[in-house]
Write a structure and sequence with these properties.
222 residues, alpha+beta, 4-stranded antiparallel beta sheet, two-stranded antiparallel ribbon, 11% strand, globular
Length: 222
C-alpha cells in the first residue's frame, strides 16, 4: 500500500511536467527557409503589450498582408511597372525580395551574409526567443503561442503551395480621387513622416490601410 501511494503521488507530481514536455510554440530554425520567413512575418507584427498591438486578429492580418506584399512584388506586377520599380530587384525568389538592399534594405534587419546565406541582425532572434519564452511559460497555450504558430504555419504553407487566405487589398481600385492598381506593394511603420514616395499611394484607415502599427501602400494606376 505504501508503494502504491508513493507511486500515485509521483505520478501526480510528474504528470503536468510530462504534459508540457513539448513547447506550445516552436519555430523552425532560422537557417531554414520556413523559419526565416516566419521570423520576418513575426518581426513585423506586434504582440500583446507591444506598441501597435490591437488584437490577435489584427496581428494575424498584419502577417498575412505582409506576405501578400512580398508575393505581389513577384507575381502581380501591375501594367506600366517593372518589377525593379517595385522591388528594386528582378527575381522570382521571395528571399531575394526580403534581403534586397542588404541589412538596411527593403526588410530592415534581414539580409544575406558574405557567403550568400540568409541572415538577420541579432535583435530579430532576441525578440523571437523573448516571445517564445512567454509562449511556453504558462500551463496552457495562450495568445503568444497562437500568434507564433500562426506565423510559422503561414510561412510553411506559403512555401508549400502559396497563400490560402484572401488579399484584402486585391480589389482596391481608388483611393480618394486617385485610381490605383489594387493590392499593397509596400508597408512601413505607421507614421506620417514615413513614405516610400514615387507612385506609392497610402491606403487610408477607412480602407484598413493600418494594421499592427504598419501602414500599407498601393500604387497609382498608370
Amino acid at each position: 500500500m505504501k508503494f502504491r501511494i508513493h507511486t500515485i503521488l509521483l505520478a501526480v507530481m510528474i504528470g503536468p511536467l510530462l504534459s508540457h514536455a513539448q513547447p506550445f510554440a516552436e519555430l523552425e530554425p532560422p537557417t531554414s527557409q520556413s523559419g526565416y520567413l516566419a521570423r520576418l512575418l513575426i518581426n513585423e507584427a506586434p504582440f500583446p503589450g507591444e506598441k501597435g498591438y490591437v488584437s490577435e486578429e489584427n496581428t494575424r492580418a498584419t502577417m498575412l498582408q505582409i506576405l501578400w506584399v512580398l508575393h505581389g512584388r513577384i507575381h502581380y506586377i501591375p501594367d506600366g511597372y517593372r518589377q525593379e520599380h517595385i522591388a528594386s530587384i528582378k527575381t522570382s525568389d521571395i528571399f531575394d525580395i526580403i534581403t534586397a538592399g542588404g541589412e538596411k534594405g527593403q526588410c530592415d534587419g534581414f539580409y544575406r551574409d558574405a557567403k550568400g546565406n540568409l541572415a538577420a541582425v541579432p535583435r530579430v532572434e532576441e525578440r523571437i526567443q523573448y516571445l517564445s519564452n512567454i509562449a511556453n511559460s504558462g500551463g496552457k497555450p495562450g495568445k503568444f503561442a497562437g500568434l507564433l504558430n500562426y506565423g510559422q504555419g503561414l510561412a510553411k504553407a506559403y512555401l508549400k503551395g502559396g497563400i490560402q487566405e484572401a488579399d484584402r487589398f486585391a480589389s482596391l481600385h481608388r483611393v480618394g480621387s486617385t485610381p490605383v492598381t489594387g493590392r499593397a506593394y509596400s508597408w512601413m511603420t505607421d507614421r506620417d513622416c514615413y513614405s516610400p514616395g514615387g507612385n506609392f499611394v497610402k491606403i487610408p484607415n477607412n480602407l484598413d490601410g493600418s494594421l499592427g502599427g504598419n501602414r500599407f501602400f498601393t500604387l497609382k494606376d498608370l
